[in-house]
Amino acid sequence: MKRFFSILLITLTTICSAQKTEIYVIGNIHDSVPNYHPKILLGMLDKIGPDIILHEVDKKGMEDYAQSKNLNENEVIASNLYSKKRPNTLRLPFEFEGRNQYRKDQGMVPTDNLAVKLIDSLYKAKQLTPKEAKIYEDFNAFTQELMKIAEGAPEKFNNPSTDRIAEKRQESQYHELLKITDSRPEFSKRFVTKPNGEKISYKDGFKKMSGFWDLRNKTMAQNIYTIAQQHPGKKIVVLTGFLHRYYLIKELKKLNKQDFILKEFYD
Q: Tell me: the pLDDT tens digits for 19-37?
């Protein structure tokens, strides 16, 4: 009898393990380059065999995919090719809904890029304080390091080591640079006009974008988790820009209640 229950327990454990949801967060370079293009990503998808592919777009973006619009990114080209071979593949959006318009309406765009350009011009004119200059130099150093890594194979920019560098780079952009835009008068005296006609300063626009980085990633992670709960026991591939990977994995680990296993495409 004891032997029977032992065998039954092992069998049930095996079945439960086999039915465990698997999530693969793949960090991508959106544009096709010699070391990363749709054929390479398609090979990764073929190896995993996902039941569900999640795209870093909102509902409107998924509609564009279905209508064969905006087919210039690695993710959508590879995903379309994969779904042709496996028509039952479910493809869903996981992006912050209405992201682009929301950023424009809030005045985050184009103040974010304009603020960084202003920091750069102040740096080149040697008008930043030594502490401010160090912040900007660190930001550029992290950026250059990641650009070099992105010239390698996808395994090079999809691993914990690169995730740590990406986290430092994004923390530098959205939290450290904020110390410059918050304290210097130049960023309070320059403005852009929002779609509703209101003006917003570089300082306030950049602050809003910095906060949105956290809100956006947490929202995307929650969307991924919700989809995983709705489709238990499936293989799910999340296609995202590789600068988002660290954040999504970190948040998914917080949300996970033994509902899924996080895996790498090269496992």
A: 899 999 999 999 999 999 9
Peptide bond into 110 cis (omega under 30): yes
209-247 exposure pattern, b = at least 16 Cβ within 10 A, e = fewer: bbebbeebbbbbbebbbebbeeeeebbbbbbbebbbbbb
Distance (Å) of CA 16 to CA 20, 74, 232, 258: 6, 35, 11, 12
Residue 66's pLDDT band (cuts 50, 70, 90): confident
**CB-neighbour burial class of residue 77 (10 A; exposed 0-12, middle 13-18, buried 19+):** middle
CA distance readout (Å), 66 to 91, 196, 248: 10, 32, 25
Cα separation, 240 vs 28, whole angstroms? 6
Query: 44 with 82: CB under 8 angstroms?
Result: no
Q: Which domains does the chain have, with CATH numbers?
A: 20-98+232-263 (3.40.1010), 101-213 (no CATH)
Residue that has been written with the tokens 């974010």 in this structure: 112
Non-local (6+) Cβ contacts of 119 within 8 A are 128, 136, 177, 180, 181
Contact by Cβ (8 Å): 186, 122: yes
Tell how far CA 66 is from the center of its chain. Answer: 22
Beta bridge partners of 262: 23
d(CA 179, CA 177): 5
Closest listed residue to residue 224, CA positions, set 247, 201, 190:
247
Which tokens hold the place of 212? 């949105």
Sign of CA dihedral 57, 62, 63, 65: positive
pTM: 0.91
